[in-house]
Specification:
The protein is an all-alpha fold. It has 6 helices and no strands. α3 packs parallel to α5. The protein is flat, with a radius of gyration of 21 Å. About 20% of the residues are buried.
Length: about 160
Amino acid sequence: MSTKPLSKLKLTLVIASLFCCAQSYATEKKQMPWDFDSNIYREQLSESIQSGINNQDLINKDNQWYECATMAPTTFRMALGVKNNKEQPGFAREIILDLYPVDNDSFRDVINQKIMDLAFEMADLADGDKTSDESPVTQAAWDWCIDQDPKHFADF
């Protein structure tokens, strides 16, 4: 008896079970406001552009959503770095400043400074065993960022 059909069957079962697990995880995951599919401005902006209307407020809000969606999980990662380097806060601060400098005299500096501030303020709440979506650090960064005036995001 050939083992080739049997190995094909095993491979098919493994692939099918992996697909089912991935599908199950995808349906269980709660959608967060910073998830790609949560951007309510993308479709509105696309329709606005197609109709030939230049809506700067909508562009600003779309830019803001994108920047906030990037900032929120970034702040969580930086808080984990601070937590894991408690003995060397100067080193953690230097690394964060290298990645997110505050020397451009723009609103980007305000965002980068907030990443630094929240990373140090909330480092104890960062849990490396959880995803950034489950972290109060991510939520705090999102809440702060999305509450800013969309006009600040005009140059992004």
